[in-house]
Design goal:
Largest sheet: none
Radius of gyration: 24 Å
Distance between the termini: 28 Å
Oligomer: single chain
Shape: globular
Length: about 350
Amino acid sequence: WKDALQWAERDLLAVQSEEDGVAEFFALFRVGDIHDKLGNRSRSISCYEQAYRLLPHLPNPQQVQLECLLLLRLGLAYFQNGDISRAFRHYEQALDLAQQAKNWRFEFAVIQGMEYAYRRLGDLRRAEHLQKQMYNLASRHHDQEYQALALIAKGRRFYDTGNVRKARRFYSEGLKQARLTGRRDLEIFFLESLAEIAHKQGHLSQAADFWEQALKVVREMGDLVHEGDLLGALGDIYLQSGQPDRTLQYFEQSLVVARQAGNREVEAGRLATLGQAHHRLGNFHLAAQYYEAALRIVREIGEKHMEARLLAQIGNLYDNLGQAPRAVENYEQALESV
């Protein structure tokens, strides 16, 4: 995203020099969107506010939809930036606009944003009321995709309050809707959520089955990063269920995927995970090899926190091997790295 931001900012400077209001609007929106993804809330707000002032330059049919979208983005950005009153002011404006335009999908999106905000604020009564509105709106328009989105909100509410049985019921229903509509991203979300619930309840084989299903979909979509995460989750679950061969198989696959994706930090994390697995399985010398390989990478990329954690793990390993001087040496280095 950092590279994308550089290109987007160059495009913005170019269109600003041409004094093209429409092009500048879309360039500002793009820059604001990337800042959002990078977590730069103040900068995203600044870009969205500037874009909002350029709305009169847009053709009338586009104005209402884009104004509604901008108000929604501003509401979320202000909320995440801690300005609650401004956030809800923008949400309410967006909701009025969507209802006036009789655009139920925008109305749904705004209600979804408000539900998220109330749930994060701990106002579960208002969040529940909005969840019902979302589901009723989708049902009224016979839209299974939006019904699935409403079921995510319902499931999250029960999951967050510890009622995993009810959360599971809503997520299971949502999974059916996602499969009917062909929304693979929603299918993955529901499968992973059901896996987490099964894991939390101690049903390890069920959790593994849901994660295996999610892995199959992710592989079909070609998402290497997500594939690596799921392989890691499966490695963990098989380690907990006492299946060392499958544990190492999945952790080794996750390392291969990290290398294919070209992410050195993730590669180091996968090597460290393999080190931990071998350590727990009593393969101390193999564990040391993986830890040392991970350590070389984190030192190359300058990741100090990971370096400290790895040095502490290597210290534990040497302690288990009865090599106290080497254990102390690594512990001391870990303290220096923090």
